[in-house]
Design goal:
The protein is an alpha+beta fold and 602 residues long. The protein is built from 21 helices and 24 strands. A hairpin with a 2-residue loop joins strand 13 and strand 14 (305-306). Pathway: Siderophore biosynthesis.
Amino acid sequence: MTSVNNSFMLSLEEKVWHKVNQLYIKKAISEFSHERLLSPVRIGFENDWGVYQILSDSSEYTYIFKAQEMQLDHWKIDVPSIVKNKGDEQQELLLMDFVLEFKEQLQIPESMLETYLEEISSTLYGATYKYSQNTTTADELSKGDFQLIEKNMIEGHPCFLANNGRIGFDVEDFSKYAPEASSGFKMLWLAGHKTLATFSSIEGLSFEKVMHQEIGSLQFEQFRDELKSKNLNPDDYFFFPMHPWQWNNKLSIIFSSDIASKQLVVLGEGKDKYQPQQSIRTLYNTTSTDKYYVKTALSIQNMGFLRGLSPYYMKGTPTITTWISNFLKDDEYLKSKGFKMLGEVATLGYKNQYFEKFGSKSAYNKMCAVLWRESPHQFLEENQSLSTMAALLHIDTEGNSLLKAWIDRSELSACEWIIKYLDAYLTPLLHCFYQHDLAFMPHGENLILRMENSVPVSVFMKDITEEVVLYEPKENMPEEVSRLVVKTTDEVKSLTIFTDVFDCFFRFVAQILDEHCDVSEEHFWGLVAQCIYQYQQEHPALEEKFKASDLFADDFILSCLNRLQLQNNKQMVDLSDPVNSLQFIGRIKNPIAQFKMSTVEV
């Protein structure tokens, strides 16, 4: 066994393994109950806590725990209180056992169960590493830089249970390429013949300009010389970076015919070092932070998708970037909020001629593509820093909140800090939705906070082409932009805020504020209501839209993420028709309905 393997096996020591399983069973009970797959029964009270139990499918096992039910049917569970019994005998808490014991209640198709268990096992493995190795404290992170924070995130997606599957990585791949473990790596550069490779970019950005920024004129000429040494004409090729794992595990084998015919040529390793981000196929240049992010195909299975990248979709990405940027560029309100989208400015896709007939949705046709995205560093002012918004949910290995650490350092009250955050994050989303019929996917990992004195002052939005929705067609839209248009009801449109913001992010912020910052969830939701009212008062011309998609409605449709993954963990959403892929289960009470036609005193 290699030294790398030894170090990883040491992280799987029993005490940490027990802690991680306990935490994930807490998450399983909380999220599956939230999605109405499990129905805990209250059997008593203990101080301010209810005592609940759930029974396994066979009724052989009983789980008993203390919990408080918060807004949005959120289950705040006292982790040490969780006990599993078989009759009178207490049992060890193991997440894999839990999934098997409740598989019928969780409605997991038999054909999906093995893969789901593998994703669960991999998630536990990654979490055990994090709790063993990533021990930077919340206080240290509050003073840390962008990538220190990114590398030390523990939770992953707050809703999904199996959120770090990474099926395809072995233990050494994990050490090299998982964001929590990697110390960075260099990209492998390839040359693709122009008969099969397509380069696209925004206006004014040529292939040569991208190359000279990303690898410099010296290495560009070295790559050209490499092709000449093989008696190939470099003008017939596009150069592009590729994730080393993708080359070693997919391209070098599946594209072997292209390699043999010299349509796909290995040029060598680039000079810059890249750090994998939470979205594992997105890579951040740590050698030159103003250079582009690079996102490549990475055909591992992770959280309901095989993480390829379509060369067909990539072809139109710069056009979409240009259109959205032009569409919003003169909006003075967004400018006043400092809202900035990170442009996806150039792409390259390489097609495998043997798999073309299987269509653009085939995983084999999503194995060789790359995207270049703007870095937020070039837009920073003096004394500003960056952080993933996912950090607001971060609890370190000692149980301390990074959100609280930032509030403490800011010298603002918790409520003042939250008001600043809502103004930076929520108001631009409201404006894009109501003014422009435009919705992003604004979960924690997709937003980057611009921080000043430990306070968010504005946000950067990323993934602005692959995960954006346009609810109404606009005049003179390019054909590539028309694929963003989704026609649906006003009620479903409002889920842009209700589900993506309230249920999938603010629900967790509310618990952290309640537990760590002495801000009740009622007060937090009151501040959210106040933010929305202020926006509405500033934009009276949008009154009809406010009524049509009413954020103060008594309740809203419950859209369930785990149900999506449990039903199909290989392709949980059709990205060409995301709205019709959603799983709706009844309705849920709106936490800001109580503030309708009122304001909150701060």
